[in-house]
Design brief:
The complex is a heterodimer of chains A (351) and B (220). Chain A is α/β, with parallel strands linked by helices and 351 residues long. Chain A is 40% helix and 20% strand. Chain A has a 7-stranded mixed sheet, with helices on both faces. A 5-stranded mixed sheet of chain A has the order 9-11-10-13-14, sandwiched between helices. Chain A has a two-stranded antiparallel sheet with strand order 1-8. Chain B has an 8-stranded parallel sheet with strand order 3-2-4-1-5-6-7-8, sandwiched between helices. The chains are: A alpha/beta (351), B alpha/beta (220). At the A-B interface, β1, α2, α7, β8 and α9 of A face loops of B.
Chain lengths: 351, 220
Amino acid sequence: MADKVLMKGNEAIAEAAILAGCRHYFGYPITPQTEIAAYMAKRMPKIGGTFLQAESEIAAINMVYGAASVGMRVMTSSSSPGVSLKSEGISYMAGSDLPGLIVNVQRGGPGLGGIQPSQSDYFQATKGGGHGDYHLIVIAPDSVQEMADYTVKAFDLADKYRMPVMILADGTMGQMMEPVSLDLDIKPAPEKPWATTGTGCERKHNIINSLSLVPEELEKLNFERFEKYAYIQQNEVMYEEYMMEDAETVIVAFGIAARVSKNAITAARKEGIKVGLIRPITLWPFPTEVISKAADKAKRFISVELSMGQMIEDVKLAVNGKADVELCNRAGGMIPSPEQVLEAIKNGGAK
Amino acid sequence: MEFKRITLLAGHYGSGKTNISVNLAMYLKSTKDKVAVADLDIVNPYFRTKDSIEDFEKAGIKFIGSEYANSNLDIPALPQELYSITDDTSYYAIMDIGGDDRGALALGRYAPAILNENNYDMLFVANFFRPLTRDADSAIEVMKEIEFAGGIPFTGIINNSNLGDETDADAVLGTLDKAKELSEKSGLPIKLTTVNRPLIPQLCDKIPNVFGLDLQNKIR
């Protein structure tokens, strides 16, 4: 225990990024993720890194694009409205096959919304956000420890697949304080022979670009990128199963909604109700297969979300008509209570 | 345990200031007739003394905080009623200062009156399990920044070292040397060592001025 520290989720992301070798942070403050920027502002100058508060989120994501182009481990972070602003740059990164970490500590929306926790950027994170045919790997932690662990993993995945990776957290994950071990699984960043680091007159120019005016060539790039995505869908899905052995009712929930649901499941089990949880850890690639298999046995599914019901669409696609899929939700910065989830387990959620 | 008329709590954000404020106010109310709590934390609206307002009302403790907190107005405003803390000397007051030097900036406008009356304790809340204050030197760095911003020098230290739910007696005992070093290097006494109340029986013989805290609710 002696090696643990007490951290906010936001601080855990920042420290884990530094431990993973990230020395470039570009961002713009917004509640409830500002501690990431504040932490980086304090730490980066002491370790020879760069913290830069950009003039806007749009500038910050383009600085990420630049640092990624020269092969640096680089990140930015924001909350919902700020991530909307970054979406153009994220699409450019995807189109240029650039690795990088984008953290979204979600708040209630749409528009300026509120500052309380939300999961209503699920569509934005998993279905694009920016324009064009692309995916991000999207990881949803459910504890401060996972905020640290998956930040390291996000950098590894980004470098491995040359693509942007998003940590999709929410206000509770960012603000809550829990003990964390910083004994993380750090691997050295791979060589990046594609980076624009100067030819030394020994090789051809590397070009980082998302512009491709010849449609045949652009189509080819898209097909190649989607072969990569298919490989990721086969190999990088992460999820947790909880009390699923005999479950007749299956809750699907991620992040803070999964923690609330576990409390409800514990209460329901005491009453003899056979209910379990599938917690997607990667929201893209989504754990479609495990949900589809569970639908062969389970009678009904409940998607518990801090939104008007977004992930439920992916749950329905995975269940594919084999069972009922219901919604149990709060929105606008409100969090479902364990009692509300228990009520949905007993008497059904919204269809 | 003796308290000055005004007790100010400041420290790194997440060091436990607000929770200690609530507990100290409840303790003060058991020995003093008129007790007030002032929330100067205009930095972080997520964790605020305001969450405890109902408890204060029940206990007969006067609470002064931003009327805009948790409303639709995103305004870091301080209520005019805060001046009653320095004007009405019949109250014993706890002042919860916002995190870091930025939070302490708000203290500046009350500092002259507090210094003039000279019946205060300015306590630095330290948690050596927090990543940016893991030793005496880094804690002193934060201390200096807060003093510079708030305009009131510290007079004592509260060692609130904890690991949340995973705190046990050994974890607390393991921080005593660091607290002592902080005390020696800063020249300030350790006013209290605060621990979760269930740990008191294991620690009351081993630590002087140990103070039990009732923790506020949190999400599991």
